[in-house]
Amino acid sequence: MTIYPAIDILGGKCVRLTQGRYDDSTVYGDSPKETALRWQNGGAAWLHLVDLDGARAGKPVNTAAIEEILRSVKIPVELGGGVRTLADIDRLIGMGVSRVILGTSAVKSRQFVTDAVKKHGGKIAVGIDAKDGMAAVSGWEEVSELEAVRFAQTMEQCGVQTIIYTDIATDGMLTGPNLAAMEEMAASVGADVIASGGVGGAADVKHLIPTGVSGVIVGRALYTGNVSLEELLCLQSG
Length: 238
Prior knowledge:
By secondary structure, this protein is an alpha/beta fold. The protein has one domain (2-237): TIM Barrel (Alpha-Beta Barrel), CATH 3.20.20.70. The chain has helices at 32-41, 52-57, 63-72, 86-95, 104-108, 110-120, 148-157, 179-188, 202-208, 220-224, 229-237; strands at residues 2-10, 13-18, 21-29, 47-51, 77-80, 99-102, 124-131, 134-137, 142-147, 162-167, 192-196, 215-218. It has an eight-stranded parallel barrel, surrounded by seven helices. It is globular.
């Protein structure tokens, strides 16, 4: 299982939201680049970046901070938030992003996903952020009528090889991931499933391993010191 430290960027700073609410954010660092270097130097094999301003605006916003991270780290980076066009994808991959995460744009257009995968293959992932099992869009501020598992299966049919599945109710709460939802998702698709939301400590990651997910995104628990990256990497290798 791969551990993905999360770096969420809002107003150029490293923050964490609670249950996706923009009005409930905590700043954990003024320099996303320094945070990225911290996780890289701690042994992380990947970084998970989210342009929170971009997710709400519908276009990449924190490009300067993202470029600074990409120039500074040597490990691969996946990025989501505000990616709505093929030009956005081309630009991000050209900047050095290893995997671009489509969210709202994937919900709104299956053809867009198909075209993106046709051009960029495994560099395209789809983020499915679920509220009560239904996919949410626009920075989690709207809930669609798409059932999350069925939507994931549709994305797999489009050629998507990586699904990032977030349970909004647990995100940022440190109360444990939605294990049943993660297990159902992993069992329903052949694509790699990366779990996100609710990790409060090493035990939560340990409990995720039997669900079949290929990775887990950890945010607030790392920033608050509830768990160290070293602890999580020991689980990953074990």
